[in-house]
Amino acid sequence: MYPKTFDDLIYEFQKLPGVGAKTAERYAFTVLGWSDEEISELAETLVNLKKKVKKCTRCGNLTEDELCEFCKNSNRNQNIICVVQNPKDISVIESMQQYNGVYHVLDGLINTQKGVLPDQLNIMTLLNRVNERTEEVILALDPTVEGETTALYISKLLEGKCRVSRLAHGIPVGSHLDYTDAMTLLKAFEGRKSS
Amino acid sequence: MYPKTFDDLIYEFQKLPGVGAKTAERYAFTVLGWSDEEISELAETLVNLKKKVKKCTRCGNLTEDELCEFCKNSNRNQNIICVVQNPKDISVIESMQQYNGVYHVLDGLINTQKGVLPDQLNIMTLLNRVNERTEEVILALDPTVEGETTALYISKLLEGKCRVSRLAHGIPVGSHLDYTDAMTLLKAFEGRKSS
Ligand SMILES: [Zn+2]
Ligand SMILES: [Zn+2]
């Protein structure tokens, strides 16, 4: 009933998580009200996204360069590695403003039911990074079955190679790291235990 | 903390209605997971939107042609004109599958407080459309202060020129037309009264 291009846009918006027909329609009408410049801006940003944003060759975090901002920052302790599920979790940890090490992004968690096996995750690169200078690997993974399984798997791999710790309980079991507030997370960091 | 292009995208998504930082971030991560083709598709649709989608020169509805699908459809009664606030309301009325006339899109309602005056709306074009063949003008406007003000204004303009009716009560007062279900709307159409 709407012109094709307008319907196309509604269809596109419905691909976003949690966006149904009504919301997609509302977004499309909003965008229709934008100036040519505003629309081009969004279109260009989308095109640039795939062109410019890639993974840090060392840690797997998002970056527009070879190395991400943490890996190339000499003020960060490059010998303490915090392992996270995805780049979003880094932004939660950074919001504590207390952690001064670097990161390693697994890009998921082991999930045998969904067929996510260790070799599909960024785990071998972690093993290769760890050396005699490595002081600690902190496993900051969700306190879920998948998170625990992954933590256990990595702990075993790193056994005898360096200190491995996990976040203390404090994060409610079954919840997600990126919904945790900075204070709770800070407590979990402070109370972390050897794995 | 994210790469610039990624932050840009989060910023862009926050311009959509009801989208906060967390939701925008979630959308950006979703889009990052799309294939190049999927991203180009959205970008192209956005660019096409302003290029292709324009207003019907007769009724103000959205179209990619000179006239919209209703104005150029000879199976619709071109002498019954349903006046609506915006193109979204047309889709609600069409969902009844009962109305066979055409439309006129005002592109807003008179709102003296917000400085929306009659001459900023698509009202003169309505007056120019109405002629001796016009059987009826149905004012399908929101049952709000602005809707009533606009309906009254148009009724006076068309006085003596043709039959003017308004939707019957049945639509809860203070609510919006595009949140009305098809059955309620059908009842309101059937019970419409002369204005
Ligand atoms: Zn890095
Ligand atoms: Zn039209």
The largest contact between protein chains, plus residue counts on each side, is: A-B, 48 and 48 residues
Distance between the termini of chain A: 59 Å
Helix/strand/pairing category of chain A: alpha/beta
Enumerate the strands of the largest sheet of chain A in spatial order, edge to edge or round the barrel.
4-3-5-6-7
> What gyration radius of chain A follows from the Cα positions, in whole Å?
20 Å
Keywords (chains A, B): DNA damage, DNA recombination, DNA repair, Metal-binding, Zinc, Zinc-finger
Family (chains A, B): Belongs to the RecR family.
GO molecular function (chains A, B): DNA binding; zinc ion binding
Protein name (chains A, B): Recombination protein RecR
